[in-house]
Amino acid sequence: MSAPAKENLQFQTEVNQLLHLMIHSLYSNKEIFLRELISNAADACDKLRFEAIGNDSLYENDSDLRVEVEFDSTAHTITIRDNGIGMNRDEVVSNIGTIARSGTKDFLQKLTGDQKKDAHLIGQFGVGFYSAFIVADKVTLTTRRAGVPKDQGVRWESDAQSGYSLETVTKETRGTEIILHLKEEEQGLANDWRLRSIIRKYSDHIPLPVKMLKTAEEEGQTSTEWEVINKANALWRRSKNEIKDEEYQEFYKHISHDWEDALAWSHNRVEGNLEYTSLLYLPSRAPFDLYEQKQQHGIKLYVQRVFIMDDAEHLMPRYLRFVRGVIDSSDLPLNVSREILQSNKIIDSMKSGSVKKVLGLLETMAKDEPEQYQKFWKEFGRVLKEGPGEDFSNREQIAKLLRFASTQTDSADQTVSLEDYISRMKEGQEKIYYITADSHTAAKNSPHLEIFRKKGIEVLLLSDRVDEWLTNSLHEFAGKQLQSVAKGALDLSKLDSEADKEEQKKVEEQSKNLINQIKDTLKDKVEDVRVSHRLTSSPSCIVLNEHDMALYMQHLLKQAGHEMPSTKPVLEVNPNHPLLARMEAETDDERFAEWASVLLDQAILAEGGQLEDPAGFVHRLNKLMLAMG
Ligand SMILES: Nc1ncnc2c1ncn2[C@@H]1O[C@H](COP(=O)(O)OP(=O)(O)OP(=O)(O)O)[C@@H](O)[C@H]1O
């Protein structure tokens, strides 16, 4: 079935919102439209070169890949043209009319209407084709996919207000031509000098020639010819000391579509058994879909400067999925396919080499530029925490890079490293103590910390979701065991003085009856009841087995529909607390049982757990409060 001659279509809602955002928040950076369009044009040429490896006819006798920029100062237009892969009708509709990235809706809902803030948000999304509308009030895109008949070109046109039109047209040459009809106030952009300087500023490093027409006057005759404006060589192949920081940054923006600078990069040439070049960047800001299962972007794989694919799975592990960059191999065959990537020794060793480079870059930054590192950590720390569970061979090195909040700093900022912690350990302290909770406040106010505070022992306060998984996979660091203060029996005996130990013994002796009585009352609900050596000001707390999942996590997973084995907790009580003294004096069995239940339930609540009978708890609490009056 052939498509109708011309039809009008609506943008997906998300596109409309994004267009609006782009137009209103990026006008102070309007020049980037050219970088984005040239970047897309260069990508399209890269894609063609790759497809043509197995099918030379796609070149249609024109293998001189290039991008051309023209302007017309009377018609107020700028044209960007490439002889790359082009698009068919369906591709135009799905690439230009819709946004397929999951999470887009949620992202757009976060927009505030405050242009400054929103301009930052757009960086998380990545600017692209739509940036054309920062300077144009109408855009006409004409394209033909390489290899399809000339009469199957497609013309797309839009004013960004009322959807877009699609039309089948004849296009002699393959590739894409984009005409920007400039807004009145932007007409000054249709100027030879300005365009040349924008191209040099933003697209110098594009590994493809970007050309503009040059008019020459000779003996009264005017002639025009195409002139290459940019350096047009692969930046990553140049030697490091020749490349300026600005060039690295512009190249980063080309490959990432980010409009903010990268935070840092690592550029390496590897020779020997394998030969490859890698240029790996850390972005300054997390993209909005960092936590989506399927990643859109990753590392661009090249083979001898020929772009092969943008790969988000094989060249970086998941915990480094934020890394952007290029790996250019001299060993892989040009016709490498996705299937080959899955089990390929060359890919594997380039991957492990690159992981080492990224970890090394982070290590240096953490040491030499702690403020930069803190910026990195804020954006990507939670992702890096997936590392110890995912990458066994680099576990120790990743662990060194981790940062936590701690009782030492009294702030929710994650700034304390395991090495810092160890350097502050008390005489006789053998373990690294931590607590996990579902918020920083819950962690820092946990009754489990009381004894540690009293003894001045530092405890790491972990409250990211991923922390529970992290502590499941990271059991020790530098020979020191990581120990949850809320799990298992607590043994601080090496840190206790003789007097402490005497005192504990005495309390245990004295409260034997009370403990047994509570145990009898709660026997169906708890594994055990014992005297606590962790508490100084709270009456009770819950202690889990060493391998049990924290209560708040169990609750979360239950909510998500997971079956959780029901494990009974251990209840620890503080006989020095006035509540316990009151219980001891209680003669009414029923009332004693109520006290005991409240003691257990409040400990569960303090732990972020869920009560089986919350109404019962409230009822008992009220009854006891009234009885106190
Ligand atoms: N000049 C072009 N030639 C061929 N296809 C193009 C061209 N410009 C854009 N496209 C297609 O439209 C898609 C969307 O472009 P856009 O710039 O909005 O997003 P993008 O951030 O570049 O996405 P990606 O990084 O996946 O290319 C591109 O991925 C590409 O498939």
Write a concise keyword list for the protein shown above:
single chain; 629 residues; alpha+beta; Heat Shock Protein 90; Ribosomal Protein S5, domain 2; Rossmann fold; nine-stranded mixed beta sheet; five-stranded mixed beta sheet; 22 strands; elongated; binds adenosine-5'-triphosphate
CATH topology of the largest domain: Heat Shock Protein 90
Q: Separation of termini?
A: 85 Å
Question: How many strand elements?
Answer: 22
> How helix-rich are the residues, as a percent range?
25-40%
Q: Approximately what portion of the residues adopt beta-strand conformation?
A: 15-25%
Overall CATH architecture of the largest domain: 2-Layer Sandwich
| Tally of helical segments | 23
Category by helix and strand content: alpha+beta
Task: List all distinct small molecules, including ions and cofactors, that are bound in this structure.
Answer: adenosine-5'-triphosphate
Residue runs with pLDDT of under 50 for 5 or more positions:
none
Radius of gyration: 32 Å
Binding site for ATP: 36, 40, 82, 87, 95, 102-103, 124-129, 176, 338
Organism: Thiothrix eikelboomii
Protein name: Chaperone protein HtpG
Family: Belongs to the heat shock protein 90 family.
List the helices and strands and how they pair.
Layout: E1 6-9, H1 13-25, H2 32-51, E2 67-72, E3 77-82, H3 89-96, H4 104-109, H5 115-125, H6 132-135, E4 136-144, E5 153-158, E6 164-169, E7 175-182, H7 192-203, E8 210-218, E9 221-228, H8 245-256, E10 262-270, E11 276-283, E12 299-303, E13 306-311, E14 324-329, H9 338-342, H10 345-368, H11 370-384, H12 387-390, H13 395-401, E15 405-406, H14 418-423, E16 432-436, H15 440-444, H16 450-455, E17 460-462, H17 465-473, E18 476-477, E19 480-484, H18 498-510, H19 512-521, E20 528-531, E21 540-543, H20 551-559, E22 570-573, H21 578-585, H22 589-606, H23 614-628
The structure holds adenosine-5'-triphosphate.
Region (C): 556-629
InterPro entries: HATPase_C_sf, HATPase_dom, Heat_shock_protein_90_CS, HSP90_C, Hsp90_fam, Hsp90_N, Ribosomal_Su5_D2-typ_SF
Region (A): 1-338
